[in-house]
Amino acid sequence: IVLFLRPTQSLTVFLQQLGRGLRHAPEKDCLTVLDFVGQVHRRYRIDKKLKALLPKHRFAIDREVENNFPHLPAGCSIQFERIARDHVLANIRVNLKNLANQVLERLHTFSAETGQQLTFGNFVRYHDYEPERLMLAESWTGWKAKARLAPVPDDPDLTQLKKALVRAVFISGPREIALLRKIVTLLAKKEVAHALTVAGDQAMAVYYRIWSATGENAGNGSIEEAFARLSRNQTILADLEEILEWAECKITARGTMPPLPFPSSLELHAQYSIKDIQAATGRLSLATAGQTGTGVLSFPDVKTYVLLVTFQKSEKEFSPSTMYADYPISRELMHWESQTRTAQQSPTGQNLIYHRQLGVTILLFARDQKKQNNCLVPFTYLGPAERVSFENERPIKMVWKLQHQMPVNMFEENRRGG
Fold first, then answer.
1. Contact 23/13 with Cβ under 8 angstroms?
2. Among 270, 289, 284, which residue's Cα sits nearest to residue 176?
3. Most buried among 72, 163, 201, 227, by the most CB within 10 A?
4. Positive or negative CA dihedral for 256, 326, 171, 306?
5. How far apart are CA 238 and CA 308, in angstroms?
6. Alpha carbon separation from 407 to 128, 275, 281 (Å, rounded)
7. Which residues is 375 bridged to in the sheet?
8. Cβ proximity of 61 and 92 under 8 Å
9. 3-state DSSP of the chain
10. pLDDT tens per residue across span 7-17
């Protein structure tokens, strides 16, 4: 048994204290930690300590406390005494509610407190902020301006392009990050023609990553015009560079690009929205933003189906008719259900069941949950798959075999009984 009798602001000290109890010893089966939670200062970050015990820092920590930590590693549990639980939730909610005051205060003291340069990456790493939460509230330069550490941004397309910063924190393909950093650097120098040349045949994919709208809706008559407009938004470009630098340091995808029967810039285990998937496979143009609002994308011209899976479905986000039983059986096998209207003898049913004989390519994309911190979560590219079995219809229940193993964290967090 280990007793925690005092709070510490240092995550390292907290984990060191915990580590003392985790040492192995003969006949030692488990560790019990008693943490005596008191009335801590409003600036004390209880959420940082609790998130450090979770498999990944991407769960809404207040919901984890409310639901008794459903995402802890197997064999572990956290149990709060009622009053302590109220203290913890109050502390977390105050920190979330007072994000603006809290961030500005920490921006002011960051360099003096840490000895590090104030960059986006250093700031979110040290204070353990969810980057999408910060970017939803304000641009990175906007935050610094509010703290009087930078001039107030006056970019002509600031309001529209702030959303690009939110999307940027989810980019995780090393090839794409490297390409975007080159383009951002060139546009910051107003070298628009050179940036277009570097983008090459991926210019449309870059366009939708940044603008995420058709030319008409975004006010762009051409790709050239869109790049030129972006070059006039210098603080957005500076923020993108810092976000991409941070993203490059944390990527786990290796940049593998499984061979497909058509040109594609998709990287295995990188994250993409529905628009990004279609842009990366050459299915979008300035005139049309492609297919939306479906769990299956069909590309007849290249005989390809894209299956979009959300493992953890909630009744708030999915209707009863779309609560499909989608889950990993192993890191190579996944159970999947077609849409409720799909019959085996329908064209879609036949293409899915007999895809090998018909020369149809099946690509799988999956995500743990639909939303994270009020942001739509992009899908992780799992690569090509082959049908192993099928039964029933409306929906058809199928098992798919992946050519490449899914990430271990995705499997552990979504497998049945896990």
1. no
2. 270
3. 227
4. positive
5. 33
6. 23, 23, 22
7. 372
8. yes
9. CEEECCCCCCHHHHHHHHHHHCCCCCCCCCCCEEECCCCCCCCCCHHHHHHCCCCCCCCCHHHHHHCCCCCCCCCCCCCCCHHHHHHHHHHHHHHHHCHHHHHHHHHHHHHHHHCCCCCHHHHHHHHCCCHHHHHHHCCHHHHHHHCCCCCCCCCCCHHHHHHHHHHHCCCCCHHHHHHHHHHHHHHHCCCHHHHHHHHHHHHHHHHHHHCCCCHHHHCCCCHHHHHHHHHCCHHHHHHHHHHHHHHHHHCCCCCCCCCCCCCCCCCCCCEECHHHHHHHCCCCCCCCCCCCCCCEEEEHHHCEEEEEEEEECCCCCCCHHHCCCCEECCCCEEEEECCCCCCCCCHHHHHHHCHHHHCCEEEEEEEEECEECCEECCEEEEEEEEEEEEECCCCCEEEEEECCCCCHHHHHHHCCCC
10. 777 778 888 88
Report d(CA 280, CA 332) in Å as an integer.
Answer: 24
Token pair 């000290």: residue: 13
Q: Is the pLDDT of residue 398 over 70?
A: yes
> Is the CB of residue 409 less than 8 Å from the CB of residue 55?
yes
Under the banding of pLDDT at 50, 70 and 90, the label for residue 418 is very low
- 378 and 272 in contact (C-beta within 8 Å)? yes
pLDDT at 369: 87
- Residue 161 to residues 146, 176, 185: CA-CA distances in angstroms? 19, 19, 17
pTM: 0.83
Which residue in 172, 203, 168, 355 sits closest to 269, CA to CA? 172
pLDDT of residue 209: 96
Q: Quick one: 164 exposed, middle or buried, by C-beta within 10 A (0-12, 13-18, 19+)?
A: buried
| CA-based R_g, the chain, Å | 24
Long-range contacts of 61-70 (CB under 8 A, 24+ apart): 61/92, 62/89, 62/92, 62/93, 62/96, 65/89, 65/92
Cα torsion through 13, 15, 19, 20, rounded to 10: 30
CB 142 within 8 A of CB 155: no
Q: How far apart are CA 15 and CA 34, in angstroms?
A: 14
